[in-house]
């Protein structure tokens, strides 16, 4: 009952902010409402399939954009991917040193706090059963900062492409159902080895394959599916504040905000540099070089009419480098122990 009440409040606040003209008010409103609801009542809504739904919806919507994807497009991205990997290394080093030297954190907490991605793989790799409270605070500050920042930097647009989806015929419906089922199965396999956002990754790849095979050519994601993904993503982000006391959030939030600011400023510097060298849009590059929040960035960029394929390709490479490699090391270590 509380979960349903939380969802209704999140939808109401999100819709109100949306109609008030606040950029991406549906997302920000659902985050704010859920955070207040969860922290005051010490209750986290139970939504076991929501993250998978968000990832699959965003993955299919992004995969549908790969109709014009070819080997030349992929090759043209390689220099920018090199800039991104260098930017991530510098971001982590500078922010980690700041936490270590200025804030007085120990080395492991500093490393975990500036890790530019999900924590699951690195926790397992370092044999840490749980993160300290301040590390979790930094990652929440990073997630919330990126969400708010990109939401206000990118004006929302009403996507006519999404809204003008043709009715599902039997063949299209069967193709879509098989796509979703295959994405879920493959995503579960990736989830077992510690890969974050696995359903988004599999949905993008499978949708791209379907497009190249001639399926789903006339299909577009309906607006209601994207809007529901927005609300669920906001609820999932806001619910993370349930176990974070306000005193701990205030105490470690300043260090988190400073480290996140350093990472985002370094990403912006590399985006400007890469924009001049590669003759590309620095703002799009900045979104591509951000240290995390793949679902949020994809969703906001998608609704803002930006080059989602370019941005998301960079984040997928980041995930492969930062999560597949640790996951493979974990599995190799376990196999040796067996």
Automatic annotation (TrEMBL):
GO terms for molecular function: monooxygenase activity. The chain crosses the membrane at residues 26-43, 50-69, 81-100, 140-162, 168-186, 193-211, 223-241, 253-274, 286-312. One of its GO terms (cellular component) is membrane. It comes from the Bacteria. Keywords: Membrane, Monooxygenase, Oxidoreductase, Transmembrane, Transmembrane helix. GO terms for biological process: regulation of gene expression. This is Ammonia monooxygenase. It comes from Pseudomonas silesiensis.
